[in-house]
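Researcher: I'm preparing a figure for a lab meeting and need a structural model of a single chain. I don't have an experimental structure, so a prediction will have to do for now. The sequence is pasted below. Please return the structure as tokens so I can convert it later.
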Amino acid sequence: MSRPALAPARRLAAGLAVLALSSTSVLALEAAASPAPVAATAAPARTLTTPLEAFGHEVGADYHLITYTQFERYLHTLAGQSDRMKLMEIGKSSEGRTQYLSVVSSPQNLANIDRYQEIARRLAKAEGVSEDEARALAAEGKAVVWIDGGLHSTETVPPQALIAALYEWLTAEDAEAKRILDDVVILFAPMNPDGWELVSTWYMRNADPLKREYDSIPVLYQKYVGHDNNRDYYLSAMTETTNVNRQFFREWFPQIIYNHHQTAPAGTVVFMPPFRDPFNYNYDPLVMSTLSEVGAAMHSRLIEEGKPGSTMRSGANYSTWNNGMERSVTYFHNAVGLLTEITGHPTPSQIRLIPDNQLPRNDLPMPIAPQTWRFAQSIEYSQSINRAVLNYASRNKDRVLFNIWRMGQNAIDKGNADTWRVTPASVEALQAVAGPSDARQGADPALYESVLRDPARRDPRGYVIPADQADLPTAVAFLNSLIKTGVDVDRATQAFTVGGKTYPAGSYVVKTAQAYRPHVLDMFEPQDHPHDLQYPGGPPKLPYDATGYTLAMQMGVQFDRILDGFEAPTERVADVMAPPPGRIEGSGRAGWLIDHAPVNGYILTNRLLAAGLPVYWQEGETRAGRATLPPGALWIPADDKARPIVEAAVRDLGLNAHAVARAPGGEQIALKPVRIGLVDRYGGSMASGWTRWMLEQFEYPFEVVYPQRLDAGDLNKDFDVLVFASDMIPADLSAAAQRPQPTPESIPAEYRGWLGHITAETTVPQLDAFARAGGSVVTIGSAHRLAAAMGAPVQDVLTGADGKLPASTDFFIPGAVLKTEVDNSRPLTFGAPRQMNVFFNRNTGFRHAGEGAGLVRYPQQVAVSSGWAIGPERLSGADAVLDLEHGQGRVIVLGPDVVNRAQARASSRLLFNALFYGPAVTKEARR
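Model: Understood. Here is the structure written out token by token.
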């Protein structure tokens, strides 16, 4: 029943490709007819097919975009013509397109590329490499620089500039280029093939150039998550992210990673490094000092060439705090990550006159005059910036290579010793002990040792993830994210004891004495974000992204921090893992009981229901042999069809089953197949897309639903549950206040049914009728506004009597992890721990005195587990989740973001429970 939203989009892209190719020359089509195989050995040549010959116009021509299909053909053509290029496939995209990597260097370097790749690996991982060896390897090796384009596909300059860059470096004969090609291995990579094809074909679909645009694309430009594909780099959920992370941290180990983006701040041409504070306290300071060096080279190159308009630091909001972006995940792996944001559009645009940006300053040294701006100018700027980066890597080849070793060795040394990171909490503790001090004299130096080096505040030497935790498969999923990002993970071959605690065989160990220690710490430890105000006593500066995101906390992984050096009998985990097989205990023939805690149990439930087999939740505690299972245990009556499904789940999903001799007693909830509608909108919702991805992973049947279908009513005919993701309900539910949409006649007919808005006047009455007739409405995060609009008794604790939210000086939680207290004896919370971390991102809490409250609450003393919060005490004792009867059905309000980019696995079970629970306990179902 699941219908991926981009399937029609791919058909559209294919159909529109005819129009997109209409400007392609006959020579290009002939050249593309028989593309060279990826492994082709090219003859030495400098006369290559030019972009003009291949596409019928220059790269960057006004009103033209080259499609990914055209680019792919051109890649094969160039690979067959140039001895400077090795074309590699690095994986498939979410829609099945090939993702390529073009390895470009001198022919002599390519002949020895395996050796240079191995040198890059040894220096990056550092383990077992002495300083003398590192210096010798740095002298022998070649700098590796990654340059990409197209991650965000409506940012059309980067992917088109990638084509120009590739051609430039395959044909350049100037002295600088030859030196760079001798010193550097360049990795050119298109980041989002699906989005590139979608946006370029959509733009080129109109024969009239003046009507070309891509603001009206009907879907996200990455199958599931759109712009959030650049927030996936530590989880590595999307296939494209995993492909890229493998090249970064397991295959090529580039020392510099350049991620091209747009758009520039108003009145400028391009934002480039360095970035504003805050500085993340986990990575090596050499990363930031080198980043500043490269940034200076980039700005200087543009100024030398008479190209004005580059800005940095305060020129935009980009910081180096959050780990989730492509260029920022590199900092936690000792590499220099570059982000540029350039202006430009295939339709000529304007550099606007911003008075403040006409005054030169350190962060905008050479202002630009207002003017009409052409696409080709942005391409030229991009090529100049590439040259600056590559020239830096060439001129500093030995330093770049040696320093990635130095940072890796620093990390290993710190992991083998007592170390202390200084964070804002450390400084606050020091200030509290020191009291007021003279700014010139400072505090008592003895406090440095007694406070900042308090033994209790030491950094861990490692982490142990016990194999006997309640949800081991989710712990393995977390470890797989670490492995995808190059972290070394070990598995215990036998039981061992550390710090007086014994861990079973199969437990996992992640030591911090490894090159990627900064990333390890960032995934396990709380983020201690500074209290970052615009001025003392003023409002907070808006962070670039979430301030607290500790992945182990969000996923609910149980782990122990080990502060002293330790050894354990372990073996290295070679690659991503399947969950260890579970076991079937007992030999009873009545059926199986399975603990509700492992989230993989929802996959089993969906498989059983899809096969027409009964599944029940036990409402109370249940005995299973010697074990007592908490409330919510799955009861699966014995059946010849059920047995292979259960056995496969035990083997492949890591579930433990108890085969019992008789059916359990006590109250039960009978589950039934559910018809889920996941609400989305024209253009696509990222939060809905992440939810869609999660539903697919856990094998829920669902249909994507748009406002027109909601407005048509009679929803109970098709759906049992309607799910509204966190960004689906605006504060103002009038149509006039919502995002403009294209006119129906301006888009293909197959997308016209997706138009429309969720409105108070038309949609809400139909949703109210749906719930009152027995349906379940589930809201996530800020979509709680819908519950109030439906008349449910939802009292927002943050909204004052005047209907206004508090000022940011009084309450501000821009993405942080908060602790909650859980009554896990209730069906909506079955399987959850008694204390659970949730992701809170400009959400709220609730007051409700009736039934349906008290399931998940913020404690009286609100605890911020990770991140930054102003005024969290306003949530004291508030409900985070409400389960409200609404006529014959239910309104279930999940206040935090229980999906959060697929990271919040611990609290996602609230959503998964809600999908089954609401339909199972409607008044009709109970009858």
